[in-house]
Amino acid sequence: MCIGCARTGVSCKATMLPEALRELLREHVEAVRRLHQEDLKAGLGQVLLPEGLERKYPSATRDWGWQWVFPAGSLSRNPRTGQVLRHHVLEDVLQRAVKAARQKAGIVQPVSCHALRHCFATHVLESGTGIRTVQELLGRKDVSTTQIYTHVMQKPGIGVRSPLDGP
What we know:
This protein is mainly α. Helices cover 42% and strands 2% of the residues. The mean pLDDT is 83.
């Protein structure tokens, strides 16, 4: 459990990060930090905190540590409170980006975020990662729901690595 989870009781998720993406993610986080600084200068830069944390930590809504890693491109008004703030990027934005990437790559088969999740689970199992570790990476409570990925491993000639991780 990370410090933030221990402090808030809200569980975070952990996953693998290919070395090939480390620098890109660092650059992205720096760009998000600059965006947050601009929002703060404009009197904004807040996020909603879970279950009463705002009362306990009143300034935390503007603290860098609580900001979204993937924020929305625009500000929005919270219908409940009327506050203008930056929410996280919505799921459909990611789904549209995956669809556009599929089309740009000339892939005719349907591709979705869920299909990428299945591919991820299958590939890490094929690389020798234990099923309990894959269960954790997927955020599953029951290992039996992770075992569905082992059926693909029965097929010969599928032992491949992610191209993002190189040779």
